């Protein structure tokens, strides 16, 4: 133990900030055995005259995560408050191929579970998973009880973030017998989206494959081919200058799929599948 004061001096030299010289008037001589939180060297003090072993190995490298450095924008479709302001929501905006409503209220299950609540919950789960994998994640809306933003603004948020990938989360409201999921990708329209049509297709394929494998939801029985659809009427896609897709997770008017969407465990499976699809695309 005789070596301790000298040792503390040595550690102070190594990590001057940890010792707070001058900040509290403490000197090395007054130092106690209370641990100094930011000292990173490992010290072994023994009762012998052996010099203490100091592990001078470099500090542990921060964990490398698969999505480090990637920016992902998630657009949770619609907003829970949209129904309160039809005038704002129905305002027509320019989506390059046509003029279209700023947003819609979205659909709901027959027993009243709204698409906006579903997309909000799945998106939050997805954000958590992606952040754990190292990604920087931005949303296009910050709650589920206000109005908007318009589809034009939703696209702009992805563009301004220079997202490596963007995804708009939805569920459909079709005839009760229809079921299954599909992914919507942009088409060439002679506009800025043309540059990301090919990348969006790769993103769409990755999301389609991961969604199918991860959730077991079948390919849509009523839209697209093998759950792949291409559209030129969606502002969220037409106005995007970053790779972007929509996912319609299933049909909220189909009883079996509505029951799945109401189940938080199933929503977690959806989020996990979407995270895997995004990751596959970003790592390919
Ligand atoms: Zn929708």
Report what the structure shows.
The protein has 284 residues and is an alpha/beta fold. Helices cover 35% and strands 17% of the residues. It has helices spanning 4-14, 16-19, 86-90, 115-132, 151-160, 197-215, 235-238, 255-262, 264-283, and strands at residues 42-44, 53-55, 71-76, 92-94, 99-101, 136-139, 165-172, 182-186, 228-231, 244-251. The strands form 3 sheets. A 6-stranded mixed sheet has the order 6-3-7-10-8-9, sandwiched between helices. It has a two-stranded antiparallel ribbon with strand order 1-2. Helix 4 (115-132) crosses helix 9 and helix 6 packs across helix 9. The radius of gyration is 27 Å and the shape is globular. Residues 1-46 have low confidence and may be disordered. The structure holds zinc ion. Zinc ion binds at residues 77-78, 106, 115, 170.
